[in-house]
Amino acid sequence: MNPLLDIHPDVAAALQGGQPLVALESTIITHGMPWPQNVETALRVEAEVRTAGAVPATIAIIGGRLKAGLTPEEIDFLGRAGHAVPKASRRDLPLLLSTHALGATTVATTMMVAAMAGIRVFATGGIGGVHRGAETSFDISADLLELARTPVAVVCAGAKAILDLRATLEVLETHGVPVLGYGTDELPAFYSRTSGLKLPGSLSSPVAVASALRAQDLVAPGQGLVLANPIPKDHEIPAGVIGAHIDQALAEAARQGVAGAAVTPFLLARVAELTGGASLAANIALVLSNARLAGEVAVAYAALRRSGAGQG
Ligand code: PSU
Ligand code: MN
Q1: Does 263 reside within a domain?
Q2: Distance of CA 266 to the CA centre of its chain
Q3: How many CB atoms lie within 10 A of CB 162?
């Protein structure tokens, strides 16, 4: 057990008993949504995971400790603090931990902590990816490289069209990361169900996903996977509507010289402002839907592991 890791008693009991677990990130709470919807959503997401029959483990850094499983009070504290909490990606961990700081875990660091704890499934909204203009900025999210090296399946609604989605898929392919559509053979684009980008495969039941995870355990045991679950139909925002707002947010970021780790939070916040309540409602709906699916996958995966089956 990692000496920097604290496991919540409910999470520890589930790990001990081989029960299904789902990891959840905290950057979506501090940097992905405004207060108070961020706290309400984080608590509802945990409830969705429980409804599916799994135990939620929201992950963050508090007082220089890696936390797998937070109390509702800790979630409330992070949500109120918002952007005052440092965003913690892989490169930030040594400094945040050694200075006893707070940190909101991104997809990359949530995967790291989940893997340390022994949690195979993780639900979030969207992953980071290759930014538009990366050919000159070199801005490629550490999330993609984490997926190549850490054995956690990330259930998400694809990636936001603030990114270069085609290049994002190419980088994942280069690193051998499976990207599976759930009930679709196209990469979902977060607010929209389709992107026009074909995926190599699609699965349509939690058991089918769990058995792909079991196969991955045998053939590529150190690697992650993306399960791309399209936003529920009644919350979809057509690409044509969201596209103009994204273009405006990107132009403002360029004009203001926003760079590095600030880029993604800036774009997320601007797109949310420009689209008004619609994008926030969509974001909440897709995260809840991903949490439910992740819970179902975790349940199926735990059952296959218990029976020693699931390959072939
Ligand atoms: N995309 C979203 N919502 C989010 C994020 C991305 O639609 O909240 C967050 C996640 O925590 C993700 C991080 O891991 O942003 C990626 O940041 P960067 O591009 O700086 O790696
Ligand atoms: Mn970046």
Answers
A1: no
A2: 18
A3: 25
- Ligand nearest to the backbone CA of 162: 1
Distance, in Å, from the CA atom of 26 to the CA atom of 85, rounded to the nearest integer, reads: 10
Q: So what's the pLDDT on residue 310?
A: 54
Query: Closest-lying ligand to the alpha carbon of 105?
Result: 1
CB of 143 within 6 A of ligand 1: the answer is yes
> Would the pTM of this model clear 0.85, i.e. be above it?
yes
Residue 273 annotated in active site: no
Q: Determine the distance separating the centroid of ligand 2 and the alpha carbon of 141, expressed in angstroms.
A: 5
What is the tally of structural domains in the chain? Answer: 1
pLDDT tens, residue by residue, 3-31: 999 999 999 999 999 999 999 999 999 99
Q: Which of 46, 67, 87, 160 is catalytic?
A: 160
- Kindly give the number of the ligand 1 atom that is closest to the alpha carbon of 108: 14
Tell me which residue range forms the domain holding 202.
Answer: 5-237+280-307
The answer to whether position 259 is within a domain reads no
User: pLDDT digits over 58-82, tens only?
Assistant: 999 999 999 999 999 999 999 999 9
275 within a domain of the structure (yes/no): no
Ligand 2 centroid to Cα of residue 113, in Å, is: 20
Q: What is the pLDDT of residues 133-181, one digit of tens each?
A: 999 999 999 999 999 999 999 999 999 989 999 999 999 999 999 999 9
pLDDT at 127 over 50: yes
**Mean pLDDT for all residues in the chain:** 96
- Among residues 63, 16, 25, the alpha carbon closest in space to that of 46 is found at 25
Respond yes or no: is residue 160 known to be catalytic: yes
Interacting residues of 73 by C-beta distance below 8 A, sequence separation 6+: none
CATH code for the domain of 217: 3.40.1790.10
In a domain, 254, yes or no: no
Distance CA 68, CA 60 (A): 7
